[in-house]
# Entry
Amino acid sequence: MKRREMISPHHLGKSMPISTILSNLASQEGCDGEPYDQMEEASNYIRELELRVEELKKENKILNYKLNPYLKPVTKDGRGF
# Structure
């Protein structure tokens, strides 16, 4: 899964992960209170989900290898090596 990115309003139009932009917006000076706390919480949750997806991808590759030891590896176009 590719991380979703947006154009950052604080970094001269640089494309950055959504979680980073949310965190940056929530932590700017004068941004106190529940809405900004919720933005920071959402940022942390997105990061956790992205990490978990990557972990699951790795686990899936290992599981496929263990369950299919007799299958030949296949290239992206569907052909064997």
